[in-house]
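$ run holo --ligand "FE2/S2 (inorganic) cluster" --emit tokens
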Amino acid sequence: MSAPLPVTLTVNGETLSHLIEPRETLADFLRRDLGLTGTHTGCEMGVCGACLVMLDGVPVHACLIFAVQAAGADIATVEGLTESAAVADLQRAFHERNALQCGFCTPGMLITAQGLLARTSVPSRAEIRDALSGNYCRCTGYEAIVDAIETVAHKRAAGEAAPRFTEEPA
Amino acid sequence: MKARAFDYIRPATVAEALAAFAEAEGDASYIAGGQSLIPALALRLQAPARLIDIGHIAALRGIAVEDGWLRLGALTRHVEAHDHPLIAVHAPLLALAAPYVAHPAIRNRGTLGGSVALADPASEFPAMMLAMAAEIEIVGAEGTRRVPADAFFQDLYQTALEPGELLAALHIPVARPEQRCAFDEIARRRGDYALVGCGIRLTMPRDRVEEAHIAFLAVGPTPMRAPAAEAALIGARLDAEAIRRAQAALARDLDPPEDGEVPPAMRLHLARVLLGRLLGRLQDQIAEAA
Ligand SMILES: Cc1cc2nc3c(=O)[nH]c(=O)nc-3n(C[C@H](O)[C@H](O)[C@H](O)COP(=O)(O)OP(=O)(O)OC[C@H]3O[C@@H](n4cnc5c(N)ncnc54)[C@H](O)[C@@H]3O)c2cc1C
Ligand code: FES
Ligand code: FES
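-- output --
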């Protein structure tokens, strides 16, 4: 009875039907079955935040949900948010402020930032740090990440649209 | 770090869920938010043959006030404790504690029912059930019953839930204007499980304490009331002397176990510090209101 089950879900705007083994986490499904490797896996127990995705518009850990549980849900990964340019301003600010070094934590950081700014338009630095409490970064020391998120919060509140991210900022 | 294979069932009703559990002859687990269960499965601390996903059972949802009680369906998420206007008004201790529970993304999935059913002594919401004098609604093959929080938490991870029973809802007496409450905890880092935490609800119709509920987390095998500290406050004005008496009485209430993280004496000390801090905060609130 632990045979694969048919599951229909939406990933980055596309509705997909797959046969999925119940024990496969959403993180493994995205990475292995769909090749969406922007969702990283570190601890696989909810501690590091590298695997965050949007599920029905709010951040969740893809390592803490089985893909079969996501049947009927609407998932957005960092690839989807990049393609739609929803996080382009965050990506630009991270780039400009050197808020990433190895980049392993970055997809999770972007999802947390996007979730935070959807709830609180201009969070304080303390609120930003609090929101990042479940995202580990072993490189930057967090200061630049807080700066980048703060910058974008102010820009968005001032009504500046997210410019599309390009490799070389103009 | 991967879960053992299991079969997955998504019932639509409580009756279907109970039947699916009975059919598995004990080798099954309910899953709600999965935020505690999935790490346990990944570490293979648990390996049930069947997972019954209760996340889509409508009867386990909903937040409503009925006859002086706030009813929170088991599937109410941590984030709703944080944000929901009815919870802020009628169960302010839950709203005060919610920001200390895990991290935002975990709060988006974790459920109050899951947290209370698991009864981790280091968790915030189970202790708040004691501080709010909540009742826990349980449904099983025999029907439905309501158990007061004081009788629900029995021993380490052991509750009044019998195998196969579901926690259906939490019932909380709505907060009254003459009640004041406070919550805080001491943790090494924000979002980590606390070294000690405490929620207090004082009923003060005039300037004296008529009723006191003081509940601690992370000080023993279950969330714990502090009856001696509570008794030290009854009938008293909330002044420095009463606060000192309550702090001193804590030694009779708490006997923190040896756990390798911090020595029992230090945990008791931290509990005293925290109790003094919270009662002081309430004292200030009362002074401001006067
Ligand atoms: C990194 C991390 C940090 C965390 N930090 C904290 C913290 O600081 N404080 C804190 O309190 N918690 C913390 N948690 C735990 C989190 O709050 C869990 O969500 C919560 O304890 C369980 O709720 P759940 O809905 O996810 O339950 P699940 O994981 O789905 O279930 C937990 C257990 O309860 C049972 N169960 C669930 N619902 C019911 C029901 N309705 N009836 C009967 N049985 C049921 C399940 O069978 C299982 O045994 C943390 C988790 C992680 C991963
Ligand atoms: S991989 Fe999911 S939180 Fe670390
Ligand atoms: S940039 Fe390396 S972990 Fe954050």
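-- notes --
Residues A 100-105, 137-140 surround FE2/S2 (inorganic) cluster (ligand 3) (CB under 6 Å).
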